[in-house]
Structures are given as C-alpha cells and as structure tokens.
Amino acid sequence: MFEYFPGNYVWNLGVVAALNSGGLIDEVDRACRPIRDAAAQGSDAGTPDFLRAWTALTDQLVAQAEKAGHARTAGELYFRATNYLCQAERMLAHSDPDWLPSYRRVLALAQKAFDLRDRRISRVAIPYGGTTLPAYFSLAPATEAGPAPVIVLVNGLDSTKEHMYTSGHWRELAERGISCLMLDQPGTGEALRLQGLTARVDAEAWAGAAVDWLETRSEVDTSRIGIVGWSLGGYYAPRAAAFEKRFALCVAWGANHNWGAVQRRRLEREGERPVPHYWEHVLWVWGHDDLDEFITFADDVHLDGVVEKITVPFLVAHGENDRQIPLEYAHRSYDRAVNSPRRELRVFTAEEGATEHIGLDHLPHVSTFIADWVADTFEVG
Predict the structure, then answer these.
(1) Would you name the residues annotated as active-site residues?
(2) CA dist., res. 230 & res. 207, Å (int)
(3) What phi and psi, each to the nearest 5 degrees, are found at residue 248?
(4) Contact of 181 with 153, CB cutoff 8 Å
(5) DSSP category for residue 140
(6) Which is deepest, 48, 81, 139, 217, by most CB within 10 Å?
(7) pLDDT band (50, 70, 90) for residue 342
(8) What are the two backbone dihedrals, phi and then psi, of residue 312, each rounded to the nearest 5 degrees?
(9) Which residues pair with 133 in a beta bridge?
(10) What is the pTM of this model?
(11) CB atoms within 10 A of CB 127
(12) What structural domains does the chain harbor?
C-alpha cells in the first residue's frame, strides 16, 4: 500500500482511499505535506490537523467550482471536494465539535455533484420502522428499456453512502446494466449521524426494508436484487442474504466472518484499526456506553451457523494482506457456505494489488471484478 505517512496506518488508509476514489495526487499531496509532522504523533492526536488540511483543500475546490462557469467542470470539482471531505470526516471522533458540521457539508457537496455531474443518481428515503433510511439510488441506463437488476450496497463500520458514491462502484454496475442502491443502514452514515439509528446484529431487518422499497419501483427487476457489503458489510450482507430470501446473490467485500473476535484481538492491540478514536466510534455505532459489556455483546456478531443458510450465489473477496480482518475468515465464510449453488473465493495478491483491507490499495481492481461477477451471475452486460 502507498504509505504517505510512514507508520500511520489509519491516515495512510484515508490517503489511499481518496486517491483510489477519484482523487488527484497533486491535490492530495498539497493537503498532506503540511501535516507530515502531525502524522508522526499518531492517528488520534493529529486528527484536527488532518481535518484542517483537507478542509482547506475542499475550500479551494469549492471556490474553483463556483467560478468554473461550466457544469461539467464544476461537477468534477464538487465530486472531488466530496471525496476529500468525507475522508476527513471519517477520521473525526463523535465528540469532536467539527464532526457534524463537516458531515452536513459533505451531504451538500454530494448533492451539487449529482446535480451537475451524475444526474442519474437521486437521493431517496427507505421506509423503516416508523422512520426512513437515507440512500442514493443510481439508475442504470438499461432502465430506459425496462426493469433492470439492482445491487443494495451497504457500509462497513465507518463508511457512508458518500464513500460508496465516490468509489464509483455504482458506475461500474451501471455500465453493465445494473442499478445500485447505496444505503446508509443503521449504525452508518446519515442514519447514525443525523437520525441516531444504531447498528443491529439482525441485518435482515433493514435489508428487508430495502427490498420492500425496491419492489415498489417499476425500474427494478425484482427477481434480480443482490446485496454487496464491504468491510463490516462483509458481515451484514451475508447475514442479510441468509435470512432475507428475496436476495438473488450476495458479495462479502472483505470477509468479516467473526467481527466479535476481531474486537477481542483489538483489545490486545493485534491487527490494525480503521479509524482514530476507535473505541469511542465503535460504542457510538452500536449504541453502547460500556466497553466491557459491549465486548460481550459483540461476541454475537459472527457468521457461524449463518452462511450455511445462504442459498444464492455467494462471492467472498478478500485481500491477502488485510491488516484488519484475517484472511482465514475469508476461507471460513467460503468453506461453510455449503448451500450456496455457486460460491467463489477470490483472494487478491500482492503481485496484482488490492491486497489490503477491502482492496483499498487498488480499489478499482476489486470493484470491476465484483461488478463483472455480479453481471455474470445476473446474466447481463
């Protein structure tokens, strides 16, 4: 993995994610150069410096967009501004006073990018338990000819639907004739930040709500609805597919087979953490305030006895050198999914890249592989 900040895994992950989600190396370099000394103090201590540097870059791009005078140019600038600021917001602790204003600004920037650059994406609300789940819905061009397959794309522990948008995975699917619902499920993104909806073990509850909504849409081929989840979504998606039988396929983009066990490893400082202020973030996501009680609760966040219930095609994609989630979990999910009619394990190697967590070091490579697999399974493209 490209490591701009030697020894600071968390910050390097943000840099690589930004670059592999449409960022430009010159812009990222200009943001990062002033904070190299702060990076050496650790990911937690320097978080305000990271935010200031990347916000300054965001401000610069927004100013350029406002003066651009051309919709396409302005749209590209707003897109990159969204990318950079949502990476910086991801680093902030829930208690940071800059956190909520930063996220609200991310939402506004993303909407400007849709309006000027990606008009086939719209903001939608999924009815769920007396409230709604925020999402972005990308309609594939194929829907102009009739209903098309759709993927429900779900977050991990610390990502948002804006990360899904900037990743470009929805575009890879669209080019293959597949729409995409980028969902902020409970415990993630806007559902957590603005609505206080915390994560739940039984992912099929909110995943079923997404299917309910999709079944009301004339643009959707309801026989071909799939679910793809990255990072902690590698737990959520298989869990949802195991119990929500309307899903026609499932992808674990990072095999989070036993997330509870990973938490116990992190208590012992084994493996890398995805964000600064890690335990504050985790407790916020799951709605807990006592770490010891949470660790006991987290023991139930696993897929033993669950992947055995998956009865649709199932892809497990994992990086050979994932420093957050052990490779052995990819093999466990694959080996135990014995009732899937078509299961596949794809391990990305150092020689090809995409070997880190969810392939962030070569994200487009993993994204296109998964999009191809989905297209082949849905028999489109």
Answers:
(1) 231
(2) 15
(3) -100, -10
(4) yes
(5) P
(6) 81
(7) very high
(8) -125, 165
(9) 126
(10) 0.97
(11) 13
(12) 9-111 (1.20.1440), 120-378 (3.40.50.1820)
